[in-house]
């Protein structure tokens, strides 16, 4: 891929970008390729699609599907407008989520919430947790809870079995939820960060989340709600804060600083400044 002019995507060694430098010095992406084991997924602008397929001829590839297909458990659907132009691309994991099975917990066992899990229960828990973690490819709403359930493996209790079953039940009830990538007229980055209240002074831990969206240019900070509703979510994280905090204010401030760092990193990976506002107060930009 590198010999063919591909450029490594920072943070993802399985994805390459193909592009060209424009007269104004910016980098224009015209195509990309990603793969998992022996499955490829690729896209390109209409005028460059043939060129990208020629690059892929060096790999032995079987059947190819266009516009609507399943890639690594993710259902990809291309939605067209009334004129036949691409309006958006939708990613869901409905079929994958619906085939996941909850852990069997007897009625008597449900009353023993504080009891440690057996080896068999731990094995079942790890299997279901792995399935839900993969479903978080598009189910961003389950990311934080899944992260917390992951940290319970070392000291697993019956209560955690019930919690992961409840999470799976909610995900199945909303299995059609996914990500939508709309065609944009202009592009700018928006990073929205959030840190929760420090409710455990002994642990000194808070939780924080960061969402990176690419959307049409915004007029002011109040337009962030519109960005969240109509922007294209390209990266996110929801986890325990990596830094100990002693108050709600310090937790939220740290989350705001992390958001600003993510925005700058994302901008550099695209070869351009996020919105031409590197000198702006990061707390003003993070919500």
Task: Give a structural overview.
The model is unreliable at 268-287 (pLDDT under 50). The chain has 287 residues and is α+β, with helices and mostly antiparallel strands. Strands 1-2-3-4 form a four-stranded antiparallel beta sheet, with no helix packed on it. Strands 5-6-7-8 form a four-stranded antiparallel beta sheet. Strands 9-10-11 form a three-stranded antiparallel beta sheet, sandwiched between helices. It folds into three domains: 7-64, no CATH class; 95-173; 184-285, no CATH class. The chain has helices at residues 49-55, 94-98, 107-110, 119-135, 143-150, 158-173, 224-230, 248-269, 282-285, and strands at 7-9, 12-21, 27-36, 39-44, 69-71, 74-80, 86-92, 178-182, 188-195, 207-215, 232-240.
- How many strands, which pairing sense, and closed or not: the largest β-sheet? 4 strands, antiparallel
User: What is the overall shape?
Assistant: globular
Roughly how many Å is the radius of gyration? 22 Å
Strands of the widest sheet, in order across it, are: 1-2-3-4
Low-confidence stretches: 268-287
Structural class based on helices, strands and sheet pairing: alpha+beta
Question: Main traits of this protein?
Answer:
disordered C terminus, 3 domains, 4-stranded antiparallel beta sheet, 9 helices, globular, 287 residues, 11 strands, alpha+beta
What's the quick description here?
This protein is of the alpha+beta class and 287 residues long. The chain has nine helices and eleven strands. It has three domains: 7-64, no CATH class; 95-173; 184-285, no CATH class.
């Amino acid at each position: 891929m590198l010999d063919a002019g591909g450029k490594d995507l920072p943070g993802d060694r399985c994805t390459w970008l193909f592009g060209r430098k424009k007269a104004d010095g910016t980098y224009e992406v015209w195509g990309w390729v990603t793969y998992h084991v022996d499955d490829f997924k690729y896209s390109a602008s209409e005028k460059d699609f043939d060129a990208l397929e020629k690059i892929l001829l060096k790999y032995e590839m079987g059947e190819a599907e266009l516009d609507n297909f399943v890639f690594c458990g993710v259902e990809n659907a291309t939605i067209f407008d009334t004129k036949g132009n691409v309006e958006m691309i939708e990613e869901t994991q409905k079929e994958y989520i619906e085939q996941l099975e909850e852990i069997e917990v007897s009625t008597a066992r449900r009353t023993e919430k504080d009891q440690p899990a057996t080896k068999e229960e731990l094995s079942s828990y790890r299997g279901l947790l792995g399935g839900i973690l993969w479903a978080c490819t598009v189910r961003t709403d389950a990311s934080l809870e899944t992260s917390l359930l992951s940290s319970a493996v070392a000291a697993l209790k019956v209560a955690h079995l019930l919690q992961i079953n409840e999470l799976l039940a909610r995900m199945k009830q909303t299995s059609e939820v996914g990500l939508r990538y709309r065609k944009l007229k202009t592009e700018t980055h928006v990073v929205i960060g959030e840190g929760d209240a420090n409710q455990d002074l002994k642990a000194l831990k808070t939780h924080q989340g960061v969402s990176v969206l690419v959307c049409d240019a915004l007029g002011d900070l109040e337009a962030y709600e519109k960005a969240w509703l109509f922007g294209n979510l390209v990266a996110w994280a929801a986890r325990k804060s990596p830094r100990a905090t002693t108050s709600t204010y310090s937790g939220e401030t740290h989350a705001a600083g992390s958001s600003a760092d993510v925005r700058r990193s994302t901008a550099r990976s695209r070869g351009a400044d996020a919105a031409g506002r590197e000198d702006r107060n990061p707390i003003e930009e993070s919500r």
